[in-house]
Amino acid sequence: MRILRDLQNVIASEYYKTRHDVAAKLFLFFPVLLTVAFIVYDLWNLSQEGYDGTNLWIYNIGRTLFMFYGMLYPLMAALFCAAYIGKEFKNDNYLLLFLFPVPRGTVYVAKLIYLLSMTFLSVLIAYVAFMLSGFILGVCLPSMGFQNFDVRILVISVFFRVFIGLLPILVIQYVFSFLFKNYALALGFSFFMTVFSMIASNWRYINFIPYSSILHAYSSFMQQTVYYWKSFETINISYFIVFSIVGYILYRYKKWR
Asked: What are the tens digits of pLDDT across the range 37-73?
């Protein structure tokens, strides 16, 4: 019971510490900003075009938003983790944390749970924003036929895989950030891996690059393929488990001075 109480207290403190953090808010709400910008553009653009029977959920909303998610989510995750770790090292806050009678391992697990919850909330917000965008466009432009298609199952499956794909990226960036304590390195690594994933999208071993996960989900969305679990997801969860263990060992036994 004490472990659970310690976990709860540390998680609550993490939310309190980051309540005004710009990077955390950006990670949560950049899908909303992206969706609002898309809706404003589409209200003007689609009103100038005729409707040809195309499923605009797929070939308009999905094609645009998931392409941006594939490019931006890894960068947002890197920025969030780098800023989060930066707060730990600012004014030696991590040393103050270690003065409390809570094991380092418990602190690490609590921080990992915090990161997972933030990722889940971000993807959930992105999903709600996506569905609302189609609803708003369908109401404002009924002639475009958004109401003629039911894509709920497809969209849920894609966002589920986006969440699974973000897990290894987040923990890799978290470990990378507290090892090197450098914003530029963390963001540069994420940018390089994302660009590499785009360039090498047809490589036979691309499944082993977690930064390609969201782009892979985007591809299956465009093909209207519904599934929740394949080799990609197994590999991503394996990466997540391995790097979580590596991070636990480093966090617990690292010499912070």
From this structure: 888 877 776 666 666 667 777 777 778 888 888 888 8
Cβ pair 177, 85 in contact under 8 A: yes
Nearest to 74 by CA among 179, 166, 163: 166
Q: Which amino acid is at 233?
A: E
Dist CA 133 CA 84 (whole Å): 31
Q: Record the tokens describing residue 235, joined without a space.
A: 């590999």
Q: Is 132 exposed, middle or buried (0-12, 13-18, 19+ CB in 10 A)?
A: middle
Ranked by mean pLDDT, the top range of 105-109, 152-156, 163-167 is 163-167
Q: Locate 8 and state its tokens.
A: 């709860």
Count Cβ atoms below 10 Å from residue 252 Cβ, excluding itself. 13
Nearest CA to 69 among 172, 238, 214? 214
Q: Report pTM.
A: 0.87
State the helix-helix crossing angle for 22-47 and 104-140, rounded to 10 degrees.
20
Which stretches of the chain are assigned E, i.e. beta strand? none
What are the b/e assignments for 72-89, b being 16+ CB within 10 Å? bbbbbbbbbbbbbbbbbe
CA distances from 131 to 60, 139, 160, 197, 252 (A): 13, 13, 14, 27, 42
**DSSP-derived 3-state class of residue 181:** coil
Return the amino acid letter for 174.
Y
Q: How far apart are CA 76 and CA 30, in angstroms?
A: 9
Q: What are the b/e assignments for 208-234, b being 16+ CB within 10 Å?
A: ebbbbbbbbbbebbeeeeeeeeeebbe
Among 195, 182, 162, residue whose Cα is nearest residue 78: 182
Amino acid at position 154, single letter = L
- Lowest average pLDDT, out of 94-98, 105-109, 139-143, goes to 94-98
